[in-house]
Request: fold
Amino acid sequence: DTGVSQDPRHKITKRGQNVTFRCDPISEHNRLYWYRQTLGQGPEFLTYFQNEAQLEKSRLLSDRFSAERPKGSFSTLEIQRTEQGDSAMYLCASSFGVVEETQYFGPGTRLLVL
Amino acid sequence: KNEVEQSPQNLTAQEGEFITINCSYSVGISALHWLQQHPGGGIVSLFMLSSGKKKHGRLIATINIQEKHSSLHITASHPRDSAVYICAVRIRYGGATNKLIFGTGTLLAVQP
Reply:
């Protein structure tokens, strides 16, 4: 257990439905990251927050995806109008620092879109 | 061509063997990370390095910035080392970025 928690751990939904995932980082960590990982591949960067500010977004993050970190603590990732191609493991990581630092990963949320 | 490539993709070893996993990258980086992922998804950071060599227990990581290459070594391998090992790099841009680019991972199975 790294201290980063994610909820839910598993989600099955029907195509077209909206889903929301939550990430609770280690409490003093100012940076929070979202990644997506499909089977047999390494994770891909989605977005990054420093405190409550969303500083980077990947081109992978289409307009159906939105992420928030309203108070600089927990974060949510919402996918609207889910598609089968959204099926993946969604990973959250957090870190503390100004320069290079170790990222601590949560257990992930596995999404299956039917 | 991926910016981060690992080899081999799959590796089977006998308990006690010395294991090497390689990572090559094609971009300028500020740091390289080695991560371990067990079945079920949990990822643990093993090393972060920008030069030289680091050692932690039976694990050793080296990086050659000029050759854009890093290796992860496991000495006296054990079945509990069985996992996917992932290399990730942070690109060195003119501005600040914290995005990591990941390799596809090396699946290691250590047989007793």
About this structure: The two ends of chain B are 36 Å apart (CA to CA). The interface with chain A takes residues 4, 30-31, 33, 35, 40-45, 48, 50, 86, 88, 90, 97-105 of chain B (CB under 8 Å). The longest strand of chain B covers residues 29-37.
